[in-house]
Amino acid sequence: MVNKIEFLENLKLTQSYCEEKIEDTSKSLASILRTINPLINGKQIFDYEKIGYLTLTKWNLPEEEYYADKVIDLFNKQLLEKKQIVKTSETKSNGRILVSEYQCSITDGASEDVAQGMIDIYDLSPIDTWFYIDNKNNLLFSWIPEKYISLIDQAVLVNCVEILNWMDTEYKELYLSIFGQESIVQNFVGSSLTNQNVKEKKRNWFWEIFKK
Question: Which residues have CB under 8 Å from 1's CB, separation 6+?
Fold first, then answer.
């Protein structure tokens, strides 16, 4: 059961935080919204590696540790840091909410590649964008600013286990229970995935791969 008040308060907080961070265009797509970098086992959890034209995120975890076991701890740490930094939660940001089934990644790197590092190897969105977690159903909710929606669209399309989805299409009942008929997805640029075209786009993408 999603706590609507907490959901909306955390969303506004995260919108404000991300709105400020995306102004720094000197950063890579992997790092621009991973400015929060908590310590785990005495080391910052995220590091970065340049591979070809892409900068990718690396998790600093021993091989025996599983990334998903750290998500709840990381979520709590990033939210606390935002609350300490953000002075106001008023924002007019446009964007869209991504829902990730964070226990189910197969780490094939497809979503990471097409999102140019904004999604990581574990099919997770940047930590700065996290704003709500449903522990019972292992769902992580992230605020994706307007300028990155087209990149995340591609990550949703190529994700072979379909654990990345837009809230307003694949979790529409929940979306409407929180926002009513008013969509917070307003005026973003590009032909983003909608309930009507996502399945067709997925079929076309897989057919293209098969032909290759």
Answer: 136
